[in-house]
Amino acid sequence: MSKHEKSKVRAYLTTRKVNPENQESPIHFFDKTTYPHSCLFRRNHFPYPDYISASFVITGLVQKPLRFSLEQFQSMPSKRVKAVLECAGDKRNLFVPKVYGEQWEKGAISQGCWSGVPLRDLLQYTGLLKGAKEVVFEAQDYGKRKDIDQTVPYARSLPLQKALHPDTLIAYEYNEKPIPFKNGFPFRLIVPQWYGMASVKWIKQITVIDKQFEGPFQAIDYVYYPNKDEDTGKFPVTLMNVNSTIQQPLNMDILNTGNHMISGIAMTGQGRIAKVEISIDKGKTWSPAKLEHNDEYAWVRWKYLWEVQETGEYIILSRATDTAGRTQPGTAFWNRKGYGYNAMDKIEVKIE
Questions:
Q1: Cβ contacts of 184-187, under 8 Å, gap ≥ 24
Q2: Are 37 and 180 in contact (CB under 8 A)?
Q3: Res 325: pLDDT
Q4: For FRET with 328, which of 90, 267, 341, 350 sits at 20 to 30 Å CA-CA?
């Protein structure tokens, strides 16, 4: 293969479902801190909207309801935030016992730089009325839910405190270009450190309310249910768990003796990554990996040089710890909808 031909080689998304479209990013083949547009993972509950409005309205408990257009946004002071976007169901396929739902492996995650206007700035324009408690975001995609026998839009809320965080954005650009249509163009909410279901795409309307929002994507889905057959102990999915993924080598690789670079990413919804450790002996001993690019909302890239001279089969584990003191467990917290999987990552390789 010539040098020119090699330059054309690229990684592609992995299809999980065609309608609605759900695609995993090629997580194992990126060593950069931002993803190109073509490799952002895609998560949908409904078909793509037939028509997209280039404006949205803020209404509800506000002093002055206002409509904002894309043209207005492009002339307003903006902010850029590099952030991980991870589906709450990322790694669902790894739960034991198995759970129903989209069988994501490790690629329901992407990262890049989102540019937009802080939501709190927009709410300053409209003003908030007394009693405001939550902010509801309604998307332009919709469909029928069989469990409630209703046609509904995708909609979720944020508590007022999170909505007013300076880094909660209504984004209109990704990596300094318009957000791809399949990832939310023209307006997408970005909520750093929360799982991706909070970052509502194709925003149609923002409504300030004085009570707890009870839409099905908040009260039924994206809830941790610790028990298989009843709802006792349920609680909402919000912050990302501390997590890590081994990118290279690949699971079930066959390698030669010598030096091998074990590399990957780690991320958290609280603080930053404090350390990543690697084990080559099934968790009996651990060695520190070298961390790179430890930004506030972005994943950390890490590397560990493995010197191996003995042939055989090996299990490689990675575990991350964040500055909030959370460490990846050996076994993930099982829940019947399969959210928040964050057990130590594991691959197996053979040395010949």
A1: 185/52, 186/52, 186/54, 186/70, 187/56, 187/70, 187/73, 187/116
A2: yes
A3: 97
A4: 350
What kind of architecture, by CATH, is found in domain 243-351? Sandwich (2.60)
Residue 1 has which token pair?
């293969």
C-alpha to C-alpha distances, 192 to 197, 209, 225, 236, nearest whole angstrom:
11, 22, 24, 17
Residue 187's nearest CA partner among 281, 57, 317 is 57
pLDDT score recorded for residue 30: 84
How many CB atoms within 10 Å of residue 348? 12
Architecture of domain 7-236: Alpha-Beta Complex (3.90)
Q: CB-based burial of residue 6 (10 Å sphere; 0-12 exposed, 13-18 middle, 19+ buried)?
A: exposed
pLDDT of residue 33: 80
SS3 at position 291: strand
Domain ranges of the chain: 7-236, 243-351
Q: How many CB atoms sit inside 10 A of residue 8's CB?
A: 8
Tokens 């309307």 -> residue: 205
CB atoms within 10 A of CB 160: 16
| Residues in the chain with pLDDT values less than 50 | 1-7
Look up tokens 């739902």; give the residue. 101
